[in-house]
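Quick log. Single chain, no ligands specified.
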Amino acid sequence: MKKAPIVLLSLLLLAGPPAFAQPAERKMTAKEYIEKFKEDAVREMLVAGVPASITLAQGMLESGNGNSALAVYANNHFGIKCHKDWAGESYIQDDDEKNECFRKYATVYDSYLDHSNFLRGRQRYAFLFQLKITDYKGWATGLKQAGYATDPRYAERLIDIIEANKLNELDKVEGASPRPIEPVNPRQQQAVVSSAGKRQVFENNGVKYIVVKKGDSFLKLAQELKLAYPELFRYNDLRRNASLENGQLLYIEPKKRKANTETHTVKPGETMQEIAQLYGIRLKSLYRKNRMAAGQEPRAGEVLQLQKRK
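-> predicted structure:
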């Protein structure tokens, strides 16, 4: 048997152990996550009004302390899906369903920024911004109520993370205070208990509404709230073939003919029905005030009248 050349033996020794023997990648700990991103969370609290404790707790829970595939490959720390208003890059992975679309960001801070904008830009979360900035329990409970996550223990998990890591101390930074969302003001959005005692009822523009939960249907809600079945469609300017989405704002009495704000500047992708829901104004009235034909949609940047006719 011939001996291997000395050069070949030397190369084999230098190559080291096979590639499959390499150690697993190290994971970020909760403490490391907090140290790395707490300044971003505090900055968003001071600018947007989302408690730093809530932002960090959600980021830790949703991303597994920054170790999930969504966080590593898409910088998405809050599990925010694409939705129809997303124009950026996307990342596809299985969630509640297969091949769901999630937002992809250039940096982690972009994810933190979009998290604040996501909460502030959706009316179903507006009531949270009336709470004290230090009321992390109210925020955690409200996020679950508004449909941010389907986990029935979502609020408790957030509270556990906050208290275990004393994240609520970050909410006491000087200058931190609630940032109420316009056009809804505190006098016109008040929580009350429904007659069925099973859910909260809120007010916008003096009109009562609820936040749709998972498993709700028009028939179930009509029975619970003691309303005639067609009324829910009429109150919300919906067609009879409409479906409900978790976290959707649903009025339970007739909307008003005008809003408490004079005008609205249309954002890209906004529809007349969405704007009517946002301000608690009847869709027909919104069309009339702006001299538009039924079914016509506004242009981005257009200023709509909410009180007087053009």
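Confidence is low (pLDDT under 50) at residues 1-24, 183-196.
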